């Protein structure tokens, strides 16, 4: 009760309380806001932590994707249900076929990778709106577990995936199946980091994680005096004269289909596949070529101490547009710079 003779005004009490609340808010608002900011920063950090991709897991998914795509490729070919169409012509005037094998393989490979890692960019040679709910088995192959440690990570923003659901489609339509591969490549900050090349008709899969390990190795010997050079069979005549200008008329030129196959020809293959795979010392391509054709091979070669560059010796950026306009030279186990120095001047944009 208030002292006798003094009556408290309800309005005054309310004003006094409001002033008190205001003072308290002013005193503590800085503390609260700083703590909220710290909490938000911690939360943001945790989100960033969770948004990294384990590269061993990604390698396992790439292998699984290539194998699944390969099964589709093989089934369509064995059932002789190619449903062949043309996507148009290459710059050199050759037809670019599209088959059911290309599309079925694309659907498996593209959707498996996107369903597992939805935040990463995936570029495929083929385009299709069919959504396949295929999911990763969570299986990591034993040879990957044996050679690759977990914990190597990259952010989704730094990753670009290139997939070729059916490399050597022309040869596929001709039933020259030894040239056919399915391929997946992961580039991190534009540099090839993971390469997978799968042969659907032999069942063999080559893989590498650059700086960590591979199930492949270089052969014990190579030569560049003169080399055996593997080239595209679609324009072998034009490239043969170019190579003979570089290395002499006695140089062996091997026409072959598929960029993936050509890279495997530079490496030591398993005994079961060695007799059917050509052996080359250098792989040269003198016209435009797409990055889904070459990225996986570049990663395999880099992992083994080899190189894949343009004809001018420039590194290829695998984070941007699909077209490589500089041609390419691929080698392992030889002096790559010495090979480049023997090549005649050639501008793929003018041929």
Question: Helices, strands, pairings?
Answer:
Layout: H1 10-50, E1 53-54, H2 55-78, E2 85-89, E3 95-98, H3 100-116, E4 121-124, H4 142-147, E5 153-154, E6 159-167, H5 169-173, E7 181-188, E8 191-198, E9 205-209, E10 213-214, E11 217-218, E12 228-232, H6 236-247, E13 252-256, H7 259-264, E14 267-268, H8 271-274, E15 282-285, E16 289-290, H9 291-303, E17 307-309, E18 323-324, E19 328-331, H10 336-341
Parallel strand pairs: 4-6, 12-13, 12-15
Antiparallel strand pairs: 1-5, 2-3, 6-7, 7-8, 8-9, 9-10, 11-14, 15-19, 16-18, 17-19
Helix pairs in contact: 2-3
Largest sheet: 6 strands, mixed
- Indicate the proportion of strand residues: 15-25%
What is the C-alpha radius of gyration, as a whole number of Å? 29 Å
Element string (H = helix, E = strand): HEHEEHEHEEHEEEEEEHEHEHEEHEEEH
**What is the count of helical runs?**
10
Gist of the model:
Helix 2 runs antiparallel to helix 3. With 351 residues, this protein is of the alpha+beta class.
Structure write-up:
This protein has ten helices and 19 strands. With 351 residues, it is an alpha+beta fold. The strands form six sheets. A six-stranded mixed β-sheet has the order 4-6-7-8-9-10. Strands 13-12-15-19-17 form a five-stranded mixed β-sheet, with helices on both faces.
Quickly list its features:
351 residues, alpha+beta, 6-stranded mixed β-sheet, 19 strands
């Amino acid at each position: 009760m208030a002292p006798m003779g003094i009556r408290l005004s309800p309005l005054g009490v309310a004003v006094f309380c409001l002033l008190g609340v205001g003072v308290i808010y002013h005193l503590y608002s800085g503390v609260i806001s700083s703590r909220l900011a710290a909490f938000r920063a911690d939360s943001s950090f945790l989100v960033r932590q969770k948004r990294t991709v384990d590269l061993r897991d990604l390698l396992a998914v790439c292998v699984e994707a290539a194998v699944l795509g390969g099964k589709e490729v093989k089934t369509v070919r064995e059932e002789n249900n190619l449903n062949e169409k043309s996507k148009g012509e290459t710059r050199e005037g050759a037809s670019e076929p599209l088959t059911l094998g290309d599309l079925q393989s694309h659907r498996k490979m593209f959707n498996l990778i996107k369903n597992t890692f939805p935040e990463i960019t995936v570029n495929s040679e083929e385009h299709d709106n069919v959504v396949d709910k295929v999911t990763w088995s969570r299986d990591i192959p034993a040879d990957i577990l044996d050679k690759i440690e977990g914990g190597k990570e990259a952010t989704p923003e730094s990753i670009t995936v290139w997939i070729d659901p059916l490399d050597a489609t022309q040869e596929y339509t001709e039933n020259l199946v030894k040239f056919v591969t399915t391929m997946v490549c992961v580039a991190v900050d534009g540099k090839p980091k993971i390469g997978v090349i799968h042969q659907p008709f032999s069942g063999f899969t080559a893989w590498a994680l650059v700086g960590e390990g591979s199930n492949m190795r270089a052969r014990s010997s190579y030569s560049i005096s003169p080399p055996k050079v593997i080239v595209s069979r679609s324009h072998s005549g034009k490239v043969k004269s170019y190579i003979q200008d570089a290395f002499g008329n006695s140089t062996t030129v091997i026409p072959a289909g598929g960029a993936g196959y050509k890279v495997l020809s530079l490496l030591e293959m398993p005994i079961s596949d060695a007799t059917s795979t050509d052996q080359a010392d250098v792989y040269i391509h003198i016209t435009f070529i797409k990055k889904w054709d070459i990225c996986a091979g570049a990663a395999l070669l880099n992992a083994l101490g080899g190189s894949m560059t343009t004809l001018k010796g420039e590194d290829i950026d695998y984070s941007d547009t699909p077209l490589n306009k500089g041609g390419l030279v691929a080698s392992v186990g030889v002096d790559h710079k010495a090979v480049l120095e023997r090549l005649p001047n050639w501008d793929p944009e003018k041929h």
